Structure formats: C-alpha cells, structure tokens
Amino acid sequence: MQGQGNAVMSLLSLHDVRLSHGRTLVLDHVDLTVDAGRIITVVGPNGAGKSSLLKVALGLLTPDSGRVERSAKVIGYVPQRLEIGRLLPLSVRRFLAMAIRETADKGQLEAMLDTVGAGHVLARQVVDLSGGEMQRVLLARALLRKPDLLVLDEPVGGVDVAGQAELYDLITGQAREAGVGVLMVSHDLHVVMAATDHVVCLNRHVCCAGHPEAVSRHPEYLALFGPRVAASLAIYTHAHDHGHGADGSVLPLDAGGGGHVHGPGCRHG
Ligand SMILES: Nc1ncnc2c1ncn2[C@@H]1O[C@H](COP(=O)(O)OP(=O)(O)OP(=O)(O)O)[C@@H](O)[C@H]1O
C-alpha cells in the first residue's frame, strides 16, 4: 500500500517499549518500525522475547512503558501456535469464514488454500490437521483478511522444506507486489538474510538492527548465533563494491558502509 507521493507509509511503530512477565523483564527499550512494502524480521534465541514483541505490536499485551502506534487498517496475524480444544468441532471452512466475518464463498476459501498449498483440507476438522497443514491454514486465514500489515510468528514452523520456500516466496510477494508491511519472527537465518529488508536481532533488548548484511557481521549477532552459523551463511553473501547503512541505503565502502551503523536501538555502547 502506497502513501501519498513517494512518502513511505508507516504501519506500526514501537517506541522505547518495556515489558515484564511477572518479575521477569522480557523487553527492554525496544524500538521498531514497519513501513508499507517492507519486510522486518526479528531473530534471536529462544526466550529472547520475540513472540512477546509481536503480541505487544498487536495490542495483545500491554507494555509496562513505552508507546505503540498502529496505523495499519487490517492486520493479518499468524501466531506461533494456536490451541484449539480437541473437543471443539470446527471445520477448516468455518475457521476461515470466521476470520473474514462473511458468508463463506467456498471458491474463495479453496483458492486461498490452494495458494498456500493446502487445497485439500477445506472439509477437514481443524484438530485433525498436521502441524504443517495448520501453519498453511493460519497463513491462508491471515491473507483472506486482505491485510495491509502481516504479523507472522515463525510462519513456516513444521512446514516441509519445499513448502517453506513457497510460503516465503508468497510472503515476499505480498510485500513486493501488494505493498503489505511484514513483521516476522523467523529462525530460518538463510531466508532472513536473503529476503528481508531489515533485521532486528533481539535478546530482550535490540542487540543490533539493520540491513541483513550489516547485521550478519555485527559482533553481538555473531555472539548470539555463533561462528558456525555465521560461516554457513557466508555463502549467501556476495562480493560487493558497496555496503549498506542500517536502513538498507547504499554506501561506498570507504564511508564505512560495510559495517554496522549504530542506531537508537543499540544499547550496547
Ligand atoms: N505469559 C507468560 N508468563 C510468564 N512468562 C512468560 C509468559 N510468556 C512468555 N514468558 C517468558 O518470557 C520470555 C520470552 O518469551 P517469548 O515467547 O516472547 O520468547 P521467544 O523469543 O518468542 O522464544 P522462542 O524462540 O522460544 O519462541 C521467556 O523466558 C518466557 O518463558
């Protein structure tokens, strides 16, 4: 979705957000912005606060302090998992129809399920779906709402390898072709490095953030993910006659463009 003129429309922003679960501080001084047509991916170890961050962004959790601004009109959300009571009789068709609050047009639902590679499950009970099928149905449900902002918590968890690539292509297409803003949590660092505009490396606070290439060289990123991961990702980088600033802008190498550019989210001195 485009803003007026060449202005990029901000769909969501978090300012200096702090969140505790009981006595545990989960998010500390977190800043983040999602613009239309951009893919922002949050990476970080287990328990780093990634899902909590998405829930704050969606308004499902209230931060202790800080500010959340949402200007997106329609948000499509894929949670990390959805617990549906085993005794609740609910077909996939009904589950999808509920999301769009309309009389379900079977053809429309089937077409969307086909798009996410789950065309065969329309008549199934939700509780009978496999893990990967459920993720595909959750993505279909999010897309049916025609969102201008997609919030995706490990959207391809449990999906087979071929399916993962297809779903990431679909998500990328939403941003590139439909101008949807995407805020995503992912552990698939290869994909993150290849198809994301902006990476936020989270470990309670924002350790570093910026263009994937700059983040992948940042000491805090390397410390979090280890040299073996960093080495396996090196194959995805290529010789560059330029570098990138934290916002993805192109910088000449002699202007320090090959390295990390510190921003307001960097609290590491
Ligand atoms: N409702 C809750 N009550 C208490 N603690 C919670 C609650 N939800 C999350 N936590 C704790 O907050 C921390 C952050 O959890 P969160 O789910 O946001 O992490 P995550 O980065 O998404 O982890 P993962 O990669 O394992 O999914 C964890 O230590 C978790 O145990």
TrEMBL record:
An MF annotation (GO) of this entry: ATP binding
Can you supply a Gene Ontology BP term from the record? Answer: response to zinc ion
Specify the domain of life of the species encoding this protein: Bacteria
Alphabetically ordered keywords of this record: ATP-binding, Cell membrane, Ion transport, Membrane, Nucleotide-binding, Translocase, Transport, Zinc, Zinc transport
Q: Tell me the Pfam families matching this sequence.
A: ABC_tran
Q: InterPro entries under this entry? A: AAA+_ATPase (IPR003593), ABC_transporter-like_ATP-bd (IPR003439), ABC_transporter-like_CS (IPR017871), Metal_Ion_Import_ABC (IPR050153), P-loop_NTPase (IPR027417)
Q: Give the matching SUPFAM superfamilies.
A: P-loop containing nucleoside triphosphate hydrolases (SSF52540)
Q: Where is the ABC transporter domain?
A: 12-228
Note the Gene3D superfamilies from the entry: P-loop containing nucleotide triphosphate hydrolases
Name assigned to this protein: Zinc ABC transporter ATP-binding protein ZnuC
Native species? Paramagnetospirillum magnetotacticum MS-1
